[in-house]
Design brief:
By secondary structure, this protein is an all-alpha fold. The protein is 75% helix and 0% strand.
Amino acid sequence: VQVTLEQIAALYHFGQFQYSYGNYSGAADYLYHFRILSTDNSLNLSAGWGKLASDILTGKWDVALEELNSLREIIDSRSPLSSLSGGAAEDAALSQLHARTWLLHWSLFVYFNHDEGRTLLLETFLAPTYLNTIQNASPWILRYLATAAVLSRKAAAGGSGGASSRVR
């Protein structure tokens, strides 16, 4: 069976439609299948954000964590310095900063609802690129970082899990 580009695009648009009408599980399915078939990097990234939102809204924390990690890899793999002209490189760096800022904000839903979330939050937020993003674009995220550190420390003291080695 031959799948056309129009059919692949229809998956994306139908996924958006499902999301807009509150069928988040259906939206996640359509966007997932779209991303498997599509070669359009910008629409794949958009579909990834939509799937992450759908997974969060359906409370599928393990799936949302996988999607979050996938988005993080995509965002971090983009090299803002790969462009030859200075203006385009600045635009790419700013775009990457905005994407990382959005990722930090959306990740709060996942990290505070996933069983291992607080430790994962510490590992992600204390990574140099994300700590730099917090300091430059969203310093209010520091309160969530502090909360996760306190909760992880209490969990480690209670014997119910390990905290990040950077916290101890």
